[in-house]
Design brief:
Helix content is 62%, strand content 0%. By secondary structure, it is mainly alpha-helical. InterPro entries: Flagellar_prot_FlgJ_N (IPR019301).
Length: 110
């Protein structure tokens, strides 16, 4: 007893045809692309700043209490300062983290 094939068999003429490429999405207008790219860059810069903040906090910790005053408010102020410094580093683009991240996000359709 012969079992039926779960997949349809190709017709003889169908083998000679080249596979059709997948349809490409319609191109976005330039204004939409630039707005999407700007949003993507802003997100990448926010991520870079968040990534750098703990590193800057550790660097500030090595400065010692005499540099910033030895009180409880110093810890709070130091974390705010670390966030601000990390944000400036991210805005400057000197590390390249945001650029690399934006390229990867764009490659994955971000």
């Amino acid at each position: 007893m012969e079992l039926p094939s779960p997949l349809p068999l190709p017709l003889p003429g169908a083998l000679a045809q080249a596979p059709q490429p997948a349809p490409q999405p319609a191109p976005q207008p330039a204004a939409e692309r630039s707005a999407a790219d700007a949003a993507l860059r802003a997100t990448a810069k926010k991520f870079e700043a968040a990534f750098l903040t703990p590193m800057v906090e550790e660097m500030l910790r090595t400065a010692g209490p005499a540099t910033f005053g030895a009180c409880h408010a110093e810890e709070i102020w130091r974390s705010v300062l670390a966030g601000a410094i990390a944000g400036e580093i991210a805005e400057s683009g000197s590390t390249g983290i945001a650029d690399s991240l934006a390229r990867q996000m764009k490659a994955y359709g971000g």
